[in-house]
Amino acid sequence: MPPAPVCPCTSGLRYRQCCAPYHRGEAEPPDAEALMRSRYSAFALREVGYLWKTLHPEHPDRSRPEADMLRELRTSAQSHQYPGLVVMDRSPPDAQGVAQVLFFAKVFERGKDRSFVELSDFRHDGTGWRYVSGVLRPLGELSGPPEQLTRATFPR
Hints:
Layout (H helix, E strand, L loop, with lengths): L19 H4 L8 H14 L2 H6 L12 H12 L2 E11 L7 E12 L2 E2 L2 E9 L4 E10 L18
Antiparallel strand pairs: 1-2, 2-3, 2-4, 4-5
């Protein structure tokens, strides 16, 4: 029997021990970083229902019809590959309950590099951590290696 696949979130764990329980609804990610990693894995594995579920009620896409969002996510997933993720920085929740994660997402669309760095905001909605918003910077807008950025040096 071949070994279980490594999780796309690059935690180093096997998928079944890492993001799979979140994707299957068996558990909630314990913090914002775990949610961000599980969302990256969901993009990589085309778990579009999970991507919808983990949007915070304040996220603008939540005002759109769920069926439309799921269809768009499925269509997009067909042409994208997600070969790796690097988490560079994170913060615990602030006084408003917002936690931040700075990450470098490696993404390719039909062979073209679409990788980016994002500083994302997450908030707990009473059930679990949810994605609120993010500021995304394509690699071409950065002056140095993305892995060297911190929340303090991220270009806003």
